[in-house]
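Reply to thread "Modeling small-molecule complexes from scratch"

Following up on the discussion above, here's a worked example others can learn from. I took a protein sequence and the SMILES for flavin-adenine dinucleotide and predicted the complex. Inputs first:
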Amino acid sequence: MKVLISGAGIAGLTTAYWLEKYGFKPTIVERAPTLLTGGYKIDVRGSALGVLRRMGIYDTVVVASTHMKGALLIDRKGKVINEMSGDAFGHRVDDDVEIIRGILCQILMDQIPDVELIFGDSIQEISSSSNGIQVKFQNNQPREFDLVIGADGIHSNVRRIAFGNEKKFLQELGLYLSVFTVPNYLNLDRVEMQYSELGRVAAVWSARGEPNMKACFGFTAPPAEVDLNDQAQQEQLIRKTYEDIGWEVPRLLQMMPNSTDFYFDAATQVHMDHWFSSRIVLVGDAAYCASPMSGQGTSLALIGAYVLAGELAAAKGDYQTAFEKYELELRPFVLINQKLGITAAKIMRSKEKNNFLTLLFQQLMRVAPGCLIKLIIDLSTRRIKKAANSIILKNYKG
Ligand SMILES: Cc1cc2nc3c(=O)[nH]c(=O)nc-3n(C[C@H](O)[C@H](O)[C@H](O)COP(=O)(O)OP(=O)(O)OC[C@H]3O[C@@H](n4cnc5c(N)ncnc54)[C@H](O)[C@@H]3O)c2cc1C
């Protein structure tokens, strides 16, 4: 069966690997001119490690991982109020691993040398019939496929074409996230520093092998407070939100306009009643994004790809049965992990409520901020561990 996958991210590359292994003929079309390398660091946890192991790349990922040494929790003047190991700070336990997103993509791409990859193009139109699918591309000639898989991220092109306007499926969590690269003037070596309070986090880190460092701002604001297509407005919102924070924040904000990779988005989840329609199916963020707040997006992409390809192999071409089983198998795991994102957002947004717990939290933050933040991180690690292990991988045979 000829399968077109839109998107060469974690979900798309992993789906292609497993489909090829099971005897399908996958082709990937990626909008970017080359594989998107670099980017932020991401975690792979729990059951998703089983996918890496079954692909034989777990050790390679560990060698290429960030090897973060530690984290310093600081107050708004820059005084260190607590220290944690890199793993404890990143909610990683047991064999969990942290790696730069682009490095993981490169490792995944290295596993599929024989898969056709079309860079610099995008699907324009899809027409399904009982015999197959005709796909029109923006640049290349139209082609026939048996199935189309949308693995093209939170603002999925395939989802828009097959299921309609994304507004129906996106659920904003009331938080914004910005990440951009700045020179490593603090000489951080595999260390992160974070200022946290309810509703506002500011952090810097330098991962292994990165000459620069990343600045990251995560904060609550009412949805639609900012135009997601207007960088000047976004920068202004960040400046306004952090104007009273000392530490390195004023300097980072000064550097912000000079950064060449300014990223800004609303923390958003994708909720759909079904992830498939006829011969088209979605996987990864395109289908069920849990938001960066969950810390589980990459693991969900890896496991979703494994299950989708596995069910297609098990159904021996009966794609309707495969898609139904894929959804049945994966949905409980997705829901548990999406809940992580919602819980994390609720904690950040609890500042908006003037209740007893918030007041108590604020009081404790005055007395022992370092211990309190560490406690919150530890509690959250327990929740994430449980969710990350809440699926048992089936053994699929091609
Ligand atoms: C700032 C930030 C921090 C994060 N931190 C974490 C973390 O700590 N842990 C974690 O697990 N996850 C984290 N995530 C989330 C994680 O990166 C995603 O959930 C995960 O990468 C999902 O993979 P994906 O393949 O579904 O989508 P993506 O990685 O978004 O890949 C989609 C691919 O599709 C391509 N594409 C888009 N449109 C088209 C088109 N029209 N045609 C063809 N191709 C197209 C894109 O170029 C991209 O290559 C974070 C995300 C962000 C933004």
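What I'd highlight from this example: The chain is about 35% helix and 25% strand. Residues 2-67+97-169+269-347+384-388 form a domain with the FAD/NAD(P)-binding domain fold (CATH 3.50.50.60). Questions welcome below.
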